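Dear colleagues,

As part of the handover before I leave the project, I'm documenting each prediction I ran so the next person doesn't have to rerun anything. This entry is a single chain, and its sequence is reproduced below.
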Amino acid sequence: MDYSDDKGLNFELVQAKLKNAPSFKINGITVHSAYNPVSEGKKWAESAMEKITGKPESVIIFGLGFGYHIKALVELLRETYGVKITVVEPSAESFDYIKENIEISDFLEKNGINVFVPDAESLDAQKIIEKLEMKDRGALFFELASYKNIFPKTYDLIYKSYNISQFFSPPAFKVLIVQPMYGGSSTIGNYIYRAFLNCGYNAKIIDFSRFYDGYRYLGDFTKNEDHVNSLRQLQINLMSEALLSSVLNEPPDMVLFMAQAPAAERVILKLKSMGIKTAYWFVEDFRTITYWGSIARHVDYFFTIQKDAFFKELENLGISNYRYLPMACLPDFHNKIAERNEYDEKRYACDVSFAGAGYFNRKNVFAQLLDFNFKIWGNDWAAEMPLKLFIQEGGRRFSEEEAVKIYNYSKININLHSSMWHWEINPNGDFLNPRVYEILGCGGFQLIDRRSYLEGVFEDGKDLVVFDSVSDLRKKIRYYLDHEDERNAIAEHGYATVRKLHTYEQRVSEMMSVILLDSYESIKPKLILRRENMSRLLKETESNPELHELLLHFSDKESLSIGEMVDYIRRGKGRLSKTEAMILMLWAAKSKLIKLG
């Protein structure tokens, strides 16, 4: 949703009946009283004070205007001043107009009042919450009525962000991440799962990778391709049923499907009928993997790593639930190796490396780099001599832990995006693969083929270095091997950039900002009810010491499931109490009923 109201504003100064106290209009709406703005401001402040109980930690006001209401509030708060006041002025244009027509800067500075003017980058709930320090449950929110009408979209964003900060707690929100059987999407799913946990969410993951060997094995039963496909479809249906069983056992608030996970229409519709939000992160090239249309039209939220042309395709199908969400790095995994060892040095160190699968264009490009100290890691190369000599350890698949070592020990990491149709380099490449962020996250120096999405994200020559052709690549390899200081400085800058702006924790924040704002009306009552139920439960069990003592272990949580209690009991040691034994028995009975159903 577009939350910006900062388009085509018209201003008109209004001389009020009270001298030296002007008002003004924005787009024909009068901001303050045209009779006595000062008196109106005092009444506004008095009304605000009636809503204040005790000493608030901070006050957020939507709308600066000419400041009459804020001056009056400051005067009333003077005895307990120490309260931090932040004013949201929705438009840079209106803020400039205000400063041009009245003297207000000195007042704001003298009283320590911060004015926040949101821009396109900050029109995001989680960023608003952080910027305005809304997480404190003691924060109060007030608005200037006229501003609510002049800037309805921005008001909606700020108001919802404030309320989300007051009722929403990540541990109370249950997320289930669904993995595919294999592929890069599975790896990214592991990263986003860890990021949800790092952000404090109640997250679980269903990893279908264990089904992959069976999926491949089905091809040994028959050479008939139709029969193999039918058998594999039956296995996918089985995984869908396993997913539903897991959800019925312990319903989450949201299910996030990774690309190529079993997300049949029937499964998605069943989840939605249960009041569970559904999201899908399509971390593939939409031109290569083309099943996305059947998924996007059914899920609540469809996140993509491509925009522009992909968005047009989605719009042509009448789909509007999409949102751009690029890849990232996981800082506690993609990191610099602090202590190097001789074994890894010998195994991974080289002047130039590449880690990835052997696509057609990569074989053609890398065959022209064989005069360098070059190591190629990964599978599916099946290369002829002499390229075969540079492929490490027989072209086996490498682990993500090994990738971190490759990126750390290589002087230069090449990142050439794959293509099945281009002889060498795709001149129209757009999205950024995971390797972009992961190499930088490991502090590695990166040479990358030009991609349109690099612009405004990473700076050529500061964070990484872009090449346009094989001859350009060769030239830059030679230059940066000879200029170690420049190479290290670029790697260090890229490391700082990616960790500041492009982590999976930040992607979780961006994703949840979209979901919480859009689903505000349905999520808010659910989470508030859980918080109230938990408080009530603790109070009601005071007469049962065993149960009360067990529940106290979860007192910092705003929601609790029997499954979580069962997990806690199973991790414990010693003899079970009667209450614990009863909970385990009820859980077993519940599981049997679900199977029978």
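The chain has three domains: 11-167, 170-324, 342-502. The first helix runs from residue 37 to 50.

All the best with the project,
I.
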